[in-house]
Design a protein that fits this description.
Elements: H1 9-29, H2 32-49, H3 60-63, H4 68-71, H5 77-92, H6 99-136, H7 146-164, H8 179-207, H9 236-267, H10 273-284, H11 291-306, H12 313-320, H13 324-412, H14 419-516, H15 522-542, H16 562-566, H17 582-600
Helix pairs in contact: 1-6, 1-9, 2-5, 2-6, 6-9, 8-9, 13-14, 13-15, 14-15
C-alpha cells in the first residue's frame, strides 16, 4: 500500500491537480490583445522620451551607427515601468490623456498583478510538487549503470542485424528484456525527466526576474501565440512572457506526472522514500541489546541459575558468581547505545527547531493573506458609499432638470416682457447654473465610482486565489504541527530509554561492588565501571528537556536487568526502593525454587 502521509503519491497528485486549476484560472483572465495595446503605448512613450537626432546633425561616421530610436526596445519589466512613468506623471498633473493611454495605464496595474501571480504559481509548484518529488520520489544513488544499457542496446542491434539476414518465417526475434533491464530503462527515463525538470526550472525562473529577458529562456511553442500580431519586435520579450510561462507550466505538469508514474513503478511501496526512512530511523536504534547478544547472555545466565552442578558448595559459588569481563562488556554496550541515543535526540531537536521556524514563517504569511479580507471589506464599503452618493446626486439632478423644464413651459405660456415672464426667466437661469454645478459633481462621483469599482472587481477576481493559497498554508501549518508533535513524542521516548540505561548501569555497578572487593583487579574494574556510568550520566544531563515535570521512568519500566546479565539475584535493595513489588517477588521465587530443587534432590 502506498504512503498515505503528507507526501504520499495521492497528496502529490492532488497538488498537481490544484496547480492545474490555478493555471487555468490565470489563462482565463489573461488578455494578449490588451497587453499588446499597452506595450504599443509604452513603446511610443519610450520613443518620445528618447528622440533621434536631426539628419543634418549626423556626420558620415555617425550615419553608419544605429540611432537611439532604432535600438530602443522593451525587454524587461523594469524597462516597461520606466517607459510608462511619463504617462503616469501626466495623469497625476491632470493632463488630458487619450482613451488608449488611459486603458494602457489601467492594464499596466493588471499586468503587474498577473506577473506576481505567475511568480506565486511557480512558488506553489516548487514548494508543493518539485521539492517533494526531489526529496521523496528520487534517489540519486539508484543511477542506472550505462554499461548495462549499452550491453542491452548492442545485444538488440546484433539480433536485429541477424534477423534481417533471415527471410520469411525463419526471422528470429530478440530475447525479451529482463526485469532488471526494464527497471534500468525506467531509471534512465526518470533521470532524464529529472534533468529536463532542472533545465525547465532554470529557464522558468529566468522569465520571472525584473532583469532583461534572455531569448534562450523562451520555449519555441510560445512563438505561435504572436502570429496574430504585427510590428511587435520592439517589445516581443514582454508580449511573449506570459504565454511562455503558461507553456512552461503545462510542461512542468506533464513532467511531474511522468516523474510520479516512473517513481511508483520503480520504488513501489517504498514511497515516499525519505519520509519512510525518517519514520524507521528511531526504530533502527532501539535502546536494547542486540538479539544475538541478548539471547546468549540470557541463556548463559539461566543455565548458571537454573541448572547448577551440585558438585560442591565452592563449585556452585564459582558458577553463580558474575563474570566481571562479561559485565564490563555489557556496560560498554550500554555506553555505546547511550551515545547513539544522544545523537538521535540531538538530530530530532534540530528537526523540531527547523520545523518551528517554518511554522513561524507560515503563520506570518497566513496573517498577511488574512489581512486581505480587511481590504475586501474596505473596498466593499467604499464602493457602496460612492454608489449611494451617485444615486442621490442623480436624483437631485433629475429633480432640478424637471423643475427647469416646467419653468420653461410656463414661460412659453406667458407674454414676453411681463413681470411674470421676467421672474420665470430669472428662475430658469438659476436652474441652469445649479444644473451645471450638479453635472460637474456627477462627473466627479462617476469617476470615483469607476476607480473604486475597478479596484473592487480586481480584488474579487483575485480573491479565490488568495483563499486557495490561504487554505494551502493552513494545511501546511497543520502538517508541520503534527510533525513537531511526533518528533517531541519520539524525543521523549529516547530520553526515557536513556534514563533506563543510566538506571540499569547504576544497578550493575552496585551489584558488582561486593564481588569486586575480593578481586585483584577490583580497583581497575571499579574505575572502568564508574567511568562508563559517568559517561551515561553526562549524556543524560546534556540533553535539553530532561528537566521535565513528569518522570520518564515509571515503576513498571524499572526492570532490574542485572539478574539476567550477571546470573544472580541481588540481595541488596534497589536505590529507588521499590524493587520488592509482588510481581517481582513472584518472579524471583520462581527462579530460586527451580535453582534449589536440584540441590535438594
Amino acid at each position: 500500500m502506498e504512503g498515505s502521509g503528507t507526501n504520499s503519491p495521492e497528496s502529490v497528485l492532488s497538488h498537481i491537480t490544484a496547480f492545474e486549476k490555478l493555471l487555468r484560472h490565470a489563462i482565463s483572465r489573461f488578455s494578449k490583445e490588451r497587453l499588446y495595446s499597452m506595450l504599443q503605448v509604452a513603446a511610443e512613450e519610450q520613443k518620445a522620451a528618447n528622440p533621434s537626432q536631426p539628419r543634418g546633425a549626423k556626420t558620415a561616421a555617425e550615419a553608419k551607427k544605429p540611432t537611439t530610436a532604432s535600438i530602443l526596445k522593451i525587454k524587461s519589466m523594469d524597462q516597461l515601468r520606466q517607459s510608462m512613468k511619463p504617462l503616469m506623471k501626466r495623469e497625476e498633473k491632470n493632463v488630458k490623456l487619450s482613451e488608449k493611454e488611459k486603458q494602457a495605464l489601467r492594464y499596466l496595474e493588471t499586468f503587474e498583478n498577473d506577473y506576481k501571480y505567475l511568480g506565486n504559481l511557480k512558488r506553489h509548484f516548487d514548494d508543493n510538487i518539485h521539492s517533494v518529488l526531489l526529496k521523496d520520489y528520487f534517489d540519486p544513488a539508484d543511477r542506472p549503470r550505462r554499461s548495462a544499457l549499452k550491453e542491452r542496446t548492442e545485444g538488440n542491434d546484433r539480433s536485429t542485424l541477424s534477423s534481417r539476414n533471415v527471410k520469411g518465417k525463419n526471422a528470429k526475434k530478440g530475447p525479451p528484456p529482463t526485469e532488471e533491464e526494464i527497471r534500468t530503462a525506467e531509471m534512465q527515463k526518470l533521470f532524464a525527466v529529472v534533468t529536463q525538470m532542472e533545465e525547465l526550472e532554470r529557464k522558468w525562473a529566468g522569465l520571472l526576474k525584473d532583469r532583461e529577458l534572455n531569448p534562450d529562456d523562451f520555449d519555441p511553442d510560445s512563438s505561435h501565440e504572436l502570429m496574430t500580431f504585427s510590428n511587435y519586435s520592439v517589445f516581443e520579450p514582454l508580449l511573449r512572457l506570459a504565454p511562455d510561462a503558461f507553456v512552461k507550466c503545462y510542461n512542468a505538469v506533464d513532467m511531474a506526472k511522468e516523474w510520479l508514474t516512473l517513481a511508483k513503478s520503480i520504488y513501489g511501496d517504498r514511497l515516499p522514500l525519505k519520509s519512510k526512512v525518517r519514520e524507521q530511523k528511531p526504530k533502527s536504534r532501539e535502546n536494547t541489546l542486540p538479539k544475538s547478544r541478548e539471547s546468549s547472555i540470557m541463556s548463559k545466565s539461566r543455565e548458571s541459575t537454573l541448572s547448577p552442578k551440585p558438585k560442591s558448595p565452592e563449585v556452585q559459588k564459582t558458577k553463580t558468581s558474575p563474570d566481571p569481563d562479561e559485565s564490563m562488556k555489557v556496560a560498554n554496550e550500554y555506553a555505546q547505545q547511550a551515545k547513539e541515543i544522544k545523537q538521535n535526540i540531538r538530530d530530532i531537536g534540530e528537526a523540531i527547531q527547523e520545523n518551528e521556524i517554518k511554522l513561524e514563517n507560515l503563520n506570518e504569511e497566513m496573517q498577511a493573506l488574512e489581512s486581505r479580507e480587511g481590504r475586501i471589506d474596505e473596498l466593499t464599503n467604499n464602493f457602496e458609499q460612492v454608489d449611494s452618493k451617485l444615486l442621490h446626486a442623480q436624483k437631485e439632478y433629475n429633480t432640478f432638470l424637471y423643475e427647469r423644464q416646467q419653468t420653461m413651459e410656463n414661460m412659453n405660456n406667458v407674454r414676453r416682457g411681463s413681470q411674470e415672464h421676467n421672474e420665470l426667466m430669472n428662475r430658469a437661469n438659476q436652474f441652469n447654473a445649479e444644473l451645471t454645478k450638479r453635472q460637474s459633481a456627477l462627473k466627479v462621483l462617476e469617476y470615483k465610482k469607476n476607480v473604486v469599482q475597478e479596484d473592487y472587481l480586481l480584488e474579487l477576481e483575485l480573491r479565490p486565489n488568495f483563499i486557495h493559497f490561504l487554505g494551502d498554508l493552513k494545511q501546511q501549518v497543520e502538517d508541520i504541527k503534527t510533525i513537531i508533535q511526533d518528533k517531541q513524542t519520539e524525543k521523549q521516548e529516547l530520553e526515557k530509554q536513556l534514563a533506563l540505561l543510566k538506571t540499569n548501569t547504576e544497578k550493575i555497578k552496585q551489584q558488582m561492588q561486593k564481588y569486586l572487593e575480593s578481586s585483584e583487579n577490583s580497583d581497575q574494574l571499579t574505575r572502568q565501571l564508574s567511568k562508563l556510568t559517568k559517561e551515561i550520566e553526562d549524556d543524560l544531563n546534556s540533553i535539553e528537556g530532561m528537566e521535565s515535570e513528569r518522570s520518564f521512568v515509571s515503576e513498571s519500566d524499572d526492570v532490574d536487568l542485572s539478574e539476567y546479565i550477571t546470573g544472580f539475584k541481588p540481595n541488596t535493595p534497589s536505590v529507588k526502593g521499590y524493587n520488592s513489588t509482588p510481581k517481582r517477588e513472584k518472579v524471583t521465587y520462581h527462579i530460586q525454587s527451580k535453582t534449589k530443587q536440584p540441590v535438594a534432590s
